[in-house]
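Researcher: Please translate sequence to structure tokens.
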Amino acid sequence: MEIIEDQSFNKITAKQLKAYGNTFENCSFQNCDFSSEDLSNLTFTDCSFKLCNLSLSKLFKTELQNVKLSDCKLSGADFSKASDFLFEVHFDSCILDNAIFYQKKNKGAKFTNCSLIETDFTEADLSNVVFDNCNLNRAFFDRTQLKAADFTTSYNFIIDPDLNVIKKAKFSVHGLAGLLTKYDIVLK
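Model: Translation complete:
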């Protein structure tokens, strides 16, 4: 098992990536198209991805440890299949529509300017997560840990306080409607 450290990769395929090795530390990936590719059993530690397409990529037992993704497409990516070991992923200006975080612990993560339409956060632990200016339209929150999560600048979310742990979570006055939807009341 060769460890690749401090390398920059531009416009490579998954096949080319695997030819280098299966463990990447402090590496950067730019303009790579890994959509619908198998990235299973790879390890990324302290890595960054910019302008990459990882939509529908297979992440079975993939280790994502302190990974930052910027301006990436991750539609349909199933993070629930990724390794739980030191899982930590942060997103900036990414498209995560229909992504899956089922039962994933990603405490303290930051989602900034992301589209999270119909993203599944069922039973995830998102304690202390910041959703900064994110579209959470039809995102699924069911038995989700949202302790001290920050939703103050995000929008279009519906979260049932009876089905999720939201103690000390932060919401703007405009976001309160998303917490009261099940009561079918009118707010003005």
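Researcher: Any highlights?
Model: The chain has one domain: 1-188.
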